[in-house]
Specification:
With 238 residues, the chain is α+β, with helices and mostly antiparallel strands. The chain contains 8 helices and 10 strands. Strands 1, 2, 3, 4, 5, 6, 7, 8, 9 and 10 form a 10-stranded mixed sheet that branches.
Length: 238
């Protein structure tokens, strides 16, 4: 019976994720896809700045340094899907290239569904740090269920100037959200990640653009918005 219930809940989440892009378009008036993509990038930079400006209540530096991938979901890009109480958000994903620099971003969606974590009506930034970039390289081909396809755990946070920053990964993904200006670890088990093909295509002006093309086949940075995001990450990654 438990297995059947879990299957039903996962199916509900997949339906929710499938409706995120449609709900986002309906909720943002006449904004074009390119405007939505650019806004997501701009808000991702703001989220990174919030991290960098709080050295005592933020994400440990060593985890950023050792991450092969990062996903940032700005709170203002949250989407209420309206199905099974499911909620989600739109954000960006990036991976480290072989030379150690960050790749171009692509747009992703996060469906939180009705399992465990509930964002409520408050806009909260979410950051995922990924230990192995291979865990997200195939996201355009399949949904990624957090806690099932990959392990996810609430990430450790800095707790003042005396707190050791020498922390290593103990899970495939560490997850954080910002509440009242402070980043804290939060469990996102049951959340579903998906590739937002429409906005990624709009961002680069390329039909059927794949994650591999974005990661390695497009000059970095691609435009001013991407450049701003790159600069923010480079500053935090030093």
């Amino acid at each position: 019976m438990k297995a059947i219930l879990n299957l039903i809940l996962v199916s509900m989440l997949i339906i929710t994720v499938g409706n995120l892009n449609t709900a986002a378009s309906a909720g943002e008036g006449k904004s074009t896809d390119s405007e939505k993509a650019a806004k997501t990038l701009e808000q991702a930079v703001m989220t990174l700045n919030h991290i960098m400006n709080d050295s005592e209540n933020g994400i440990p530096q060593s985890l950023i340094d050792n991450s092969e991938g990062i996903m940032i979901f700005p709170g203002d890009s949250k989407v209420a899907a309206g199905i099974f109480n499911g909620q989600g958000g739109r954000g960006i994903a990036m991976t480290r290239k072989d030379d150690g620099y960050w790749s171009n971003p692509f747009i992703v969606s996060l469906g939180t569904g009705s399992l465990g974590f509930q964002m409520g009506t408050q806009a909260s930034d979410i950051v995922l740090l990924i230990q192995d970039k291979n865990d997200i390289m195939e996201i355009e081909k399949t949904f990624i269920t957090l806690g099932s396809d990959v392990d996810v755990a609430a990430g450790p946070v800095n707790k003042g100037s005396s707190y050791s920053n020498d922390i290593t990964f103990g899970s495939d993904i560490y997850s954080y959200y910002r509440n009242n200006g402070i980043f804290t670890g939060v469990s996102l088990n049951g959340g579903i990640l998906s590739y937002n093909e429409i906005l990624s295509e709009s961002l680069y002006g390329i039909d059927d653009v794949s994650t591999y093309e974005i990661f390695s086949g497009i000059e970095t940075p691609y435009n001013d918005d991407v450049n701003d995001l790159m600069e923010a990450l480079v500053i935090y990654d030093e």
